[in-house]
Design brief:
The structure holds two protein chains of two kinds.
Chain A: H1 5-21, E1 34-39, H2 43-55, E2 59-64, E3 69-71, H3 76-80, E4 90-92, H4 94-100, E5 103-105, E6 109-113, E7 118-121, E8 126-128, E9 131-134, E10 138-140, H5 164-175, E11 181-186, H6 196-211, E12 216-221, H7 229-240, E13 249-253, E14 259-263, E15 268-271, E16 276-278, E17 281-284, E18 288-290, H8 292-296, E19 306-309, E20 314-315, E21 321-323, E22 328-329, H9 337-355, E23 365-374, E24 377-387, E25 393-395, E26 401-402, H10 408-430
Parallel strand pairs in A: 1-2, 1-9, 2-5, 9-21, 11-12, 11-17, 12-13, 19-22
Antiparallel strand pairs in A: 3-4, 6-7, 7-8, 10-18, 14-15, 15-16, 19-20, 23-24, 24-25, 24-26
Helix pairs in contact in A: 2-9, 2-10, 6-7
Chain B: H1 2-16, H2 23-30, H3 49-60, H4 69-73, H5 78-87
Classes of the chains: A alpha/beta, B mainly alpha.
Chain lengths: ~425, ~90
């Protein structure tokens, strides 16, 4: 991405004048060198907004997020097991506003005009930007399972966007009979939080062991293997009788016999070969795609996700729009909160450089995904990612991998680290 | 002929010699975990620059056992770790 000084000055001039005249919702207190708008207040968006202000406080940053508080997906499985409350995984944007001077607007984005570098909010306010960072998270491919929809999710929760969905699943688990069957339908790759369904099964088994000892959890998986599989299965054997007739958890790959329909009323799944699976609690985690505003802004390809240039996170389809977090395609990097936070930092660094007409620095990304097998046993997978000369992301050889020590003491310490990591990354993102 | 081979080798070397990652970016990534230190995840500011670099190199070369850090620091060169350490002590 080559910039010349003239383009830069023209851009700033346009941005500044529009700041003064174009936005009814924005009060300009001082002149800024540029205006960056961030759409989406999850781990990616909130981190990007904060990091830009930390790197250069002459840049005006506006964060647009309709929800006043964000409920994190990390930690939401802990809520299901009764280890923490929903309120403790909820974060406001107040600190981003007061401590970093970010203008937070609680509105829905209606449309984006990449040519005019303008977006329109649901209240019809127009906002102009010099650079736009989109972090819209995920949306669901509802039509992948006949009978499933946003409305049906009120009865058959996905609980893959935390908040009300988490509450619905929690209530159903508490209300099910002691010998109830919980069925988790896990999606094919790629999807948000690859180890999430298996941590969920682990912690639901932990809950059932104590409150519904004759219950069972069946994972119907639309892939042949999953993240940290060996560690999860070892943990299930150790804690939940996995592999025996009394096992609380059963895992089945149904790649060749996928779920094709659901009867919401009967809580019954229908597979391609005609198998019917009736559950007491049905948790369908559907196939996913980038958040809806990404598609309507022309940022998605045929996969439903957003292709980006990895060095800057700039869309390959629209100039001056960057996409980060779960919605973006970063080949090899999982769609996790940690990775979203890391992508946001690299993107913020690149955007600050581009706005100064400078070459962005060499990027690096990190990821560590922690999962709890029980409240006292944790496991993780980690990796460091860099960019090669061909601008492709690669995993640094020798780095990363899954937990290598699985003795009780190490598992216990990893569980402690997981809890502390959660406190740290949420503080790093929202405070 | 010798010159041609030298040129080819130099070109290949340049192609595979990757630039160091930005130390500020690495430092910012450290803070994802080290932003709320307690007894489990240490406070980086409690270490001197020499102690921090020595600890990172011990993790990298497996002279010190770890659950997480060894997997992370192996992703970085000694130079990257030294440059990043310096940023913690401006």
């Amino acid at each position: 991405m080559q910039y010349n000084r003239r383009q830069f000055i023209r851009q700033i001039a346009a941005g500044s004048s529009l700041l003064l005249t174009g936005c009814s919702g924005l009060q300009v207190k001082k002149s800024y060198s540029a205006h960056v708008v961030v759409v989406g207040g999850g781990f990616a968006g909130a981190t990007a907004a904060k990091t830009i202000r930390q790197l250069d406080d002459t840049i005006k940053v506006t964060l647009i997020e309709p929800k006043s508080r964000y409920v994190t997906c990390p930690g939401s499985n802990w809520v299901l097991a009764g280890l923490t409350s929903l309120d403790s995984i909820r974060f406001s944007y107040q600190r981003l506003s007061t401590a970093y001077g970010i203008d937070v607007i609680a509105e829905q984005v209606e449309s984006v005009d990449a040519e005019k570098q303008t977006l329109v909010l649901a209240n019809q306010d127009q906002i102009n930007y010099d650079r736009l960072i989109m972090a819209p998270g995920i949306d669901f491919n509802w039509d992948s399972i006949d009978g499933y929809s946003a409305e049906a999710a009120n009865q058959i929760p996905h609980a893959w966007q935390a908040g009300r969905q988490t509450e619905i699943l929690l209530q159903q688990i508490h209300a099910m009979p002691d010998n109830g069957l919980i069925v988790i339908s896990a999606p094919a790759n790629p999807f948000r939080c690859p180890p999430g369904p298996y941590e969920r099964a682990s912690l639901l088994a932990y809950y059932c062991q104590r409150h519904k000892p004759r219950a069972k959890i069946l994972i119907l998986d639309h892939k042949r293997g999953f993240s940290k599989q060996a560690l999860f299965m070892q943990g299930w054997r150790r804690n939940y009788g996995y592999g025996t007739e009394q096992s609380l958890i059963e895992w089945q790959s149904i790649t060749d016999n996928p779920v094709i329909a659901v009867s919401v009323k009967d809580k019954t799944l229908l597979t391609d070969f005609g198998d019917q699976i009736k559950a007491d609690v049905l948790n369908i985690i559907p196939a996913q795609k980038a958040g809806q505003i990404a598609a309507s802004s022309g940022l998605t390809d045929n996969s439903g996700w957003c292709p980006v240039q990895p060095d800057t996170a700039e869309s390959t389809l629209r100039d001056k729009i960057h996409v980060i977090g779960d919605a973006a395609i970063y080949p090899g990097i999982p769609k996790s909160a940690f990775a979203a936070n890391s992508e946001a930092k690299a993107c913020a660094m690149a955007v600050v450089h581009l706005l100064k007409d400078k070459q962005p620095p060499e990027p690096v990304w990190m990821n560590t995904c922690f999962s709890l097998l029980t409240p006292q046993q944790g496991i993780s997978v980690a990796m460091v990612y860099k960019l090669n000369q061909q601008q492709q992301i690669y995993k640094v050889k020798g780095a990363g991998g899954v937990s290598s020590r699985t003795d009780s003491q190490s598992l216990h310490r990893e569980a402690q680290i997981a809890r502390n990591w959660y406190k740290s990354i949420t503080r790093n993102t929202f405070s | 002929m010798y010159k041609v081979w030298v040129l080819v080798l130099l070109t290949l070397q340049m192609q595979f010699a990757l630039a160091d990652s930005n130390p500020r970016l690495i430092q910012m990534n450290c803070m994802s975990c080290h932003n709320q230190p307690d007894e489990v995840i240490p406070d980086l500011k409690s270490l001197s620059p020499q102690q921090m670099l020595a600890a990172l190199l011990d993790f990298k070369y497996e002279r010190r056992p770890s659950l997480i850090m060894g997997r992370i620091v192996k992703g970085f060169s000694e130079q990257e770790l030294a440059d990043t350490t310096r940023l913690f002590y401006p």
